[in-house]
């Protein structure tokens, strides 16, 4: 879809947008760009500020960083969906993996983008009519990566409780903590 088609589609729409990110330079750049594209933007730098903004007036659109200084952006997207089910939220994160993408969508995110995402990608994710079918990857995940993804999935399903995850995976808690602290294998 072209920018013109997206603009036409959204003309009668509520164009309120909440951006929640603790990276101040990124937040100010994205705010200016989205305002230039016709959005009425409110900013928040923490989970608490994001929840407060939603309580005051739930926006039609949201761009939320997953990892914030005072918590997880998934809490903000879940609250947005509870207050305004038709809202379109996009989760941004520097820790892109399948588990967090699935979790974000389950919490109500419309889309999920790995940082660094530019304003065009974010805009197109917000305005997308439907998700395109994923293409077959040229380089599928390694066995180590699949194992790491599985551990991350169980960790999320256990409510990010390390002890419960270790028990369910039948592994030592400290071993699990070391795995969780490392970057994802390629």
UniProtKB/TrEMBL annotation:
This is Response regulator receiver protein. It holds the Pfam family Response_reg. NCBIfam families: ActR_PrrA_rreg. Residues 16-130 form the Response regulatory domain. The modification 4-aspartylphosphate is found at residue 65. CDD domains: REC_RegA-like. GO terms for molecular function: DNA binding. One of its GO terms (biological process) is phosphorelay signal transduction system. It comes from the Bacteria. It comes from Methylocella silvestris (strain DSM 15510 / CIP 108128 / LMG 27833 / NCIMB 13906 / BL2). Keywords: DNA-binding, Phosphoprotein, Transcription, Transcription regulation, Two-component regulatory system.
């Amino acid at each position: 879809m072209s920018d013109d088609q997206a603009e036409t589609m959204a003309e009668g729409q509520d164009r309120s947008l909440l951006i929640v990110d603790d990276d101040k330079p990124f937040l100010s750049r994205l705010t200016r760009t989205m305002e230039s594209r016709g959005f009425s933007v409110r900013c928040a730098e923490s989970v608490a500020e994001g929840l407060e903004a939603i309580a005051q007036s739930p926006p039609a659109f949201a761009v939320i960083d997953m990892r914030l200084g005072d918590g997880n952006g998934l809490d903000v997207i879940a609250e947005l969906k509870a207050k305004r089910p038709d809202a379109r939220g996009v989760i941004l994160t520097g820790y892109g993996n399948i588990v967090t993408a699935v979790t974000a969508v389950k919490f109500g995110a419309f889309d999920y983008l790995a940082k660094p995402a530019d304003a065009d990608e974010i805009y197109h994710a917000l305005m997308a009519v439907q998700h395109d079918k994923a293409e077959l990857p040229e380089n599928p995940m390694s066995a180590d990566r699949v194992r790491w993804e599985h551990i991350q999935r169980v960790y999320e399903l256990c409510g990010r409780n390390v002890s419960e995850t270790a028990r369910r995976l039948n592994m030592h808690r400290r071993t699990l903590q070391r795995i969780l602290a490392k970057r994802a294998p390629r």
